[in-house]
Amino acid sequence: MIFDPQGLVLTNNHVISGSQNITVSLDDGRQFQAEVMGADILSDLAVLRIPGESYKALPFDGKGDRKLRAGDWVIAIGNALALPGGPTVTVGVVSALGRSIESTPGVTLYDLIQTDTVINPGNSGGPLIDLQGSLVGINTAVQRLSATGSVVEGIGFAIDVDTASQVAQQLVEIGFVRWAWMGVILADLIPEIAAEVGLTIRDGVLIQDTIVGGPADRAGIRPGDIIVSADGHELATVSDLTRLLKQEFVVEQEVTIEIFRGEGNEVVNLVLGERPRR
Q1: Which of 81, 108, 138, 220 has the smallest count of CB within 10 Å of its CB?
Q2: Annotated catalytic, 124?
Q3: What pLDDT, on the 0 to 100 scale, is given for residue 40?
Q4: Is 44 one of the annotated active-site residues of the chain?
Q5: According to CATH, where is 2.40.10.10 located in the chain?
Q6: What is the tens place of the pLDDT at every residue in 223-263?
Q7: Among the options 124, 134, 229, 239, which is catalytic?
Q8: Fold of 180-274
Q9: Could you say which DSSP state residue 151 is in?
Q10: Is 229 a known active-site residue?
């Protein structure tokens, strides 16, 4: 998807990962060799540049003040199965928001748009737009099987436009993304288990471990602590905290972390680091 008239193209990292030469084909038949401006495995996004200028582009004007909701109609555009004759367009609805999936081993994508719009190989990196023609997401993945191996249909995922915009800006400016980092291994606090072990809270993010010398370790956060809020934002799940680290917080920012430890809450100040690049 061309998002800037100067030839800047946004796609998924998994589309171009490992490629020696990348060719971008436009719908008018023209083809260009592309230069990789930057790629990020943690968001599964990459920015390319093709020569020339004055291209028709779909900018990151995004959702603006309009809140995307489950049930909204959306349109997916892509080069499904590399079929000849131009792009493929499919229509569906937003099924849910804030989904997370494991994109590659050890890498989870958060805050995704779930849609029943048909997404097939070749759609990755294409735009998901609303009925006003505004970009709302980047088509990224589709789930074919359930956890038990049953075939499922109508479960596709797109990266939210706000995430895509922020990542693309950094990839263009510095060639990589500086993700805010706490240096912790996290898990959701499961309410049923919390009740079984006698905890007085039911929501929060459990610290399974800390990286020695990392920001959380230096701030005095320990395994077994439960984060209940960060800079005033209440946290119920790992996704809540990850969303803050990706969209609200920045490297070297000092944030106030409220933790549940023992029988009550404590507050610590933590200076965020930069997540090691992969």
Answers
A1: 81
A2: yes
A3: 95
A4: yes
A5: 2-49, 73-174
A6: 999 999 999 999 998 888 988 998 889 999 999 999 999 87
A7: 124
A8: Pdz3 Domain (2.30.42)
A9: B
A10: no
